[in-house]
Amino acid sequence: MLSNQLLNKVTWKIPNALALVGSASGETWNGMTTSWITQLSMEPVLIGIGVDNSAVTHRLISEGGSFTVNLWDPADKRVFVKFSKPAVRRGTTLNDRQVRIGKTGAPIFEDAIAYMDCQVRYAWDMGTHTLFIGEVVDAGIRDDTIRAAAMSDTRMKYGGVKRGGH
Amino acid sequence: MLSNQLLNKVTWKIPNALALVGSASGETWNGMTTSWITQLSMEPVLIGIGVDNSAVTHRLISEGGSFTVNLWDPADKRVFVKFSKPAVRRGTTLNDRQVRIGKTGAPIFEDAIAYMDCQVRYAWDMGTHTLFIGEVVDAGIRDDTIRAAAMSDTRMKYGGVKRGGH
Q1: Which residue in the set B10, B45, B149 is minimally distant from A139, CB to CB?
Q2: What helix, strand, coil percent values describe chain A, rounded to 5?
């Protein structure tokens, strides 16, 4: 018997990344905490991210055609809860974090330890989430000594079955 | 300038899982170390895995229409190198690890701390790898006290740009 409880427990065990995804449509920018991230091809280098269909980021990536993946210092965890809601833009900041616009038009966080700037090649609606697959057209490493944050660095969980108001 | 070296370095920083993927076509069974794994939808619960187009596992999943994701104890790391090559089946073992056939027909490792048995719903060739997306139709947890292994538990790396003979 495959209960929702078991589905939650087992999927929460999958070791996930924890990063900020940047997106933009015109003057509307956002950053969103994201854990469903994986590379999907080596030639070209493609990165896939799963984004909730109801998220602001879903609209911005759909309109803007690009996204950034910003890997983060695990010591700077406060961002992950903060960026679980739509971010507040002031000038060139999102939630008071400095960003700059990358080659694809999506914002890159200056505080990221490393980033990938991705042009969307495919977008597939999987049900509750859309898989955006982007080619890495630009990338950078700010600090090569720090490992990137993972979900397991926090007490957060993401995944499992759909819940009311998720 | 986006060099192959930078693409390798930045993609290797993405925190990945490290698990064994089970697959079967008729009497041919395999288990393969896999790190490109993420959930992709909550309703239905879909899991995506990226599998090298030249891998035995690619053929078996394509033919068998299913796969299992076997999460592993990080203290039992030897399997990951061992299962980087096609596994040797003897009876109901793969590389001397006991397996049983799950609901979908794919093998489940008895040593896994948890498993997801997935029926393939979509398969998309991304270039070097195919993204197999499966619905979790059965799952189990053998030991709920152990966290699942991640790539960072080893010195292994996977991803980046394609290399000769990869």
Answers
A1: B10
A2: 15, 45, 40
pLDDT band at B126 (very low <50, low <70, confident <90, very high): very high
Residue A78 clears pLDDT 90, i.e. is over it: yes
CA distance B149 to B144: 13
Q: Which residues in chain A have their CB less than 8 angstroms from residue B43's CB? A: 127-128, 161-162
With beta carbons under 8 A apart, name residues in chain B contacting A161.
Answer: 42-43, 45
Distances from the Cα of A104 to the Cα of A52, B92, B122, B150, angstroms: 21, 51, 29, 31
How far lies A83's CA from each of A33, A88, A111, A121, in Å? 5, 9, 14, 25
Q: How far apart are CA B29 and CA B106, in angstroms?
A: 8
pLDDT level of residue B166 (50, 70, 90 thresholds): very low
Contact (CB, 8 A) for A102 and A108 = yes
Q: Which residues of B touch A50 (CB under 8 A)?
A: 38-41
In the sheet that holds A97-101, the strands lie side by side as: A89-90, A93-94, A97-101, A107-109
List, as ranges, residues 50-89 from B with C-beta within 8 Å of A: 50, 69, 71
DSSP state of A116: E
pLDDT at A50: 98
Strand A97-101 with A107-109, pairing: antiparallel
Contacts with B108 from chain A: Cβ below 8 Å: none
Which residues, 6 or more positions from B6, have their beta carbon under 8 angstroms from its beta carbon?
A: A139, A140, A141
Its ipTM equals 0.96
A103 interfaces chain B, CB cutoff of 8 Å: no
A166 has a pLDDT exceeding 60: no
A2 touches chain B (CB under 8 A): yes
